[in-house]
Amino acid sequence: MSESEDDNSGVESSGSRPCRHPAVLSARLTVVVEDTHFSEEKTLLVRSCDYFRALYRSGMRECRQEEIHLKSLHARGFFIALAVLRGEAPGLDADDIVEAIECAAFLQVAPLTKHLVHLIDSDNCVLMLHTAATFGLLDLYHAAALFIRNMYPDLEVEVRRTLPLELISFVESLSPSAFVAVGAHVTCSTSESVHAASRTVCYLDESGNTWKTLTDLPLEASTSMAGVAVLDNKLYIVGGVHGLHKDVVDASFCYDVSKNSWIEIAGPVKRRFNLSLVGQDGHLYAIGGEYERTVMSSVEVLELKSGRWRFAAHLPRPASGAACTKTMGRIFVCLWRPMETTEIYEYIPTKDQWRLLTSLIRRQSYGHCMVAHRDDLYVMRNGPSDDFLRCMIDCYNLSTGQWTALPGHFANSKGSLFTALTRGDSVFTLNRSCTLEYVVSGKMWKPRRQMKGFPRSGSVWTFLLQIPNNQNDKCTNKSQKST
């Protein structure tokens, strides 16, 4: 075997006789856990698990065996790991969660850890936190702790009854995710001040029931018909327009709340406005939009690590301002078409394809937005078309594939559902007069509290940001000075 063939084998030498032959990674491996035998391709295990990757780079005699025994591990946990590695998204009960966390930590299975993070909810978050702390699964540990912090008033009794003091202290040390809003504004003219109140990103101080300024938009940034999304606690503004002729803004921006700073980032290859922007797993998805009076079906993906945009599979048909949401690690877009038909598509990144999930026919004028809670997708629309102020909600359950209509209606005069988002088991909606928080119980939205509305006219973008305590103090001082 030549030296170049050695280097391309994907297995490195360290110690005794190395496992370098390509056949080593093309064969199947039998993994014995407890009394259960699993047969799987070695390439899948090596690609997805740090444990097997290290094993086949070690040169140890186990890497030449056709059967490996894993001790101190449960068969159910390994079964769940294999299901996730094959692209499945299994639901997990309490026992499953413990064994899956044990497996993810022992074998260092990053996809399984990511799947567990996506499954965090109010029923399992305390168990997730405690078990992740026990096995040292840090990504899950931090995600579960933040989820609990965001729902602390509802979970504090259970947390104090269940968790050890050090975990309680860690949860309480975190800053909860704040409800943040920014109006739809064009780029600044030379005569407009960068500190103009209308060009600020604001967050709701829920304890004081007041809106405070978080940051000013960059001079070149436009939130008018832009794509706005948050990923990894950073705010992204892509595209948008300025001027009466809706000239497309070339520049895109990222706000890092931990540093309280903006940077300019690369924009999509195809200029666009009125796009939908979704952030998921280190990628931004610019979906549809318009350019030169043409509605687009093209989709582009920004890999944040490399900073490069690439084209993805086109939407099934052109769409601008499409309602999008994500839940349980999955991305969904809602498309409307004539004959009063609503269609929900899921984008599958591993296959780069859009899959039609369901269609619904309802009397409506058009849809407002779509939000997700656990495995439910809530589609908001105004209708019937002769009653613009009424907002109707239909719920699609991903697990059962069934539609249900929420009873009654939600009046836009009380809380506009042109924009809505979920935090824990709550849904936040707002308009100029009030911010409303609903509690999702079953498939019902029950009003919980009413807070101050967002004092801006026009369209509003809403999202969640975790604001550090020191940054929160600065925002308070800034808001007091501006007042």
- What portion of residues is helical? 10-25%
Distance between the termini: 75 Å
CATH-level-4 superfamily name of the domain at 177-482: Kelch-type beta propeller
Per the principal axes of the C-alpha atoms, what is the gross shape? globular
Number of beta-strand segments: 30
Largest sheet: 5 strands, antiparallel
The gyration radius over C-alpha positions equals: 25 Å
Strand content: 35-45%
- Kindly report the average pLDDT value: 86
* CATH C-level of the domain at 177-482: Mainly Beta
CATH architecture descriptor name of the domain at 177-482: 6 Propeller
- Uncertain segments: 1-24, 189-195
Continuous helix count = 12
> SS-based structural class?
alpha+beta
Q: Predict the CATH topology of the domain at 177-482.
A: Neuraminidase
